[in-house]
Design goal:
Layout lengths: L3 H6 L4 E7 L14 H13 L4 E5 L12 H18 L3 E5 L3 H10 L3 E4 L8 H8 L3 E4 L17 H19 L6 E4 L8 H9 L2 H4 L6 E2 L5 H7 L7 H13 L4 E4 L2 H14 L11
Parallel strand pairs: 1-2, 1-8, 2-3, 3-4, 4-5, 5-6, 7-8
Helix pairs in contact: 2-3, 3-4, 4-5, 10-11
Length: 281
């Protein structure tokens, strides 16, 4: 089974396939909330070249209703267990709840992907105890209201400062820095202008010396630029992924695995990741 460090040592972009076991996610809600359908989709994404599968049981789209710990566990744990029975793929669990984190790792998950950057009570301590990689994401506000007039004086500097603070807090709590991934949180409490500034200056976050994960697949930032519905955003999503790759992002959280794998192979061939994470032509 590959570890995060082993995957990153391959010095290439890594593709994380999105697996939402929810009835209400913005793009694929209701498609994979039956265990057999979820596992089949995971195996299909692995076949298409996904290095990681990110399993989530609570929608974080703007306005989504929260779910209980018990409900989230019932959605994600059977899926993680079944994927692990069929594959040694690297599995991430997309959750902010410490008890879900604990149960998911026991079921076979390899990483915690948290939109709240481990700010829930006990989350940092649980992750340090579990000794697994974590992804810390920036979000202004909370999912239910994050898109109600988000404002920044300098979005790149503020997102960078937040992530730097969370990295330091996690290290103090006992998580090794080599186990920390950061995510600028495209679309989470940000306008289109904020998202474009973050994408254009992604190298500022790469300079924090943690692998950068980006999630722009099918998001409204793509739809607004293209004036396209959620199912017509593939080409825009690929363009955004390539731009992020050229600016140093290492992990790409996407719905459309095969097209993204192909696009990133071309970007990587021209602009390879060098040892230490920097990029060059």
């Amino acid at each position: 089974m590959k570890t995060l460090q082993l995957l990153l040592s391959e010095q290439r972009p890594l593709v994380m396939g999105i697996l939402n076991t929810t009835p209400d996610s913005f793009s694929d809600g209701g498609q994979f909330n039956i265990v057999s359908a979820a596992v089949d989709h995971a195996l299909q994404m692995i076949e298409q070249g996904a290095d990681m599968i990110d399993v989530g049981g609570e929608s974080t789209r703007s306005g989504a209703a929260p779910v209980s710990v018990e409900e989230e566990i019932s959605r994600v744990i059977p899926v993680i267990e079944k994927i692990r029975q069929h594959s040694s793929v690297f599995i991430s669990v997309d959750t902010s709840k410490p008890e879900v984190m604990r149960r998911a790792v026991a079921a076979g998950a390899d990483m915690i992907n948290d939109v709240l950057a481990l700010q829930s009570p006990g989350a940092m301590e649980i992750c340090a105890q579990l000794d697994v990689p974590v992804c810390l994401m920036h979000m202004q506000g909370e999912p239910r209201s994050m898109q109600h007039n988000p404002q920044y004086a300098d979005v790149v500097a503020e997102v960078g400062a937040f992530l730097q603070q969370r990295i330091a807090a996690c290290v103090r709590a006992g998580t090794a820095q080599e186990n920390i991934v950061i995510d600028p949180g495209f679309g989470f409490g940000k306008t289109l202008e904020h998202n474009l500034l973050l994408l254009g200056h992604l190298d500022a976050l790469v300079d924090l010396h943690c692998p950068v994960l980006v999630g722009m697949s099918r998001k409204s930032m793509i739809g607004k630029i293209l004036d396209a519905g959620v199912n017509d955003r593939l080409y825009g999503s690929l363009a955004a992924a390539v731009l992020a790759c050229a600016r140093g992002a290492r992990i790409f959280r996407v719905h459309d695995v095969q097209p993204t794998v192909d696009a990133l192979k071309i970007c990587h061939a021209v602009n390879p990741v060098r040892r230490g994470g920097e990029r060059g032509i």
